[in-house]
Amino acid sequence: MLKLKKALLIVDVQNDFCPAGKLAVPQGDKIVPVLNKYIKIFSQKKLPMFFSRDWHPQKTSHFKKFGGIWPVHCVQNTKGAEFHPKLKIPKEAIIISKGMDPQKDSYSAFDGEDRYGQSLHNILMILGIKELYIGGLATDYCVKATVLEALKRGFKVKLLLDAIKGVDIKPKDSLKAIEEMKQKGAVLVNFEMILKEK
Length: 198
Fold this sequence. Notes:
Elements (H helix, E strand, L loop, with lengths): L5 E6 L20 H13 L4 E6 L39 E5 L21 H8 L3 E7 L1 H14 L3 E10 L7 H11 L3 E3 L1 H5 L3
């Protein structure tokens, strides 16, 4: 069904982006059961899985009180920065941390690195990954930035439509983001379509 050279990339499914979090995406937790189904498939196929997370220092230009546009969220080693408790992260998954530079916003998972300081792009190159299946939070920010960056760097992208949710600061932000990703080359899919892949 899924051949090698493919990887799952789940973006920022953290407590602070879920209901009751500091920067909650409406119904952000609703995608967790769907993501777990994708995780199961990729686990069965022994394909690589990446989980990106915002991992901000306490002081960063990303936050309102230091000149940014966002409330304080996903500060390193806080409960809010932890992945959603029901997200089933396999032990072999690679965690990509981003937003650690206090001078940068770092929306894209490609701005992140693993615990050894290797960039996401380098790891994908080493593993020979050509295609990314991307889901997570939020559609109109970090998912969009990650998808567009992946396409720009020459990866094929399948956007998991049933496993993303947006912030929608302005109405229809998420719909516009999906349209932009599609126009730049992302293929829109859902779980049923993935099950049918050879």
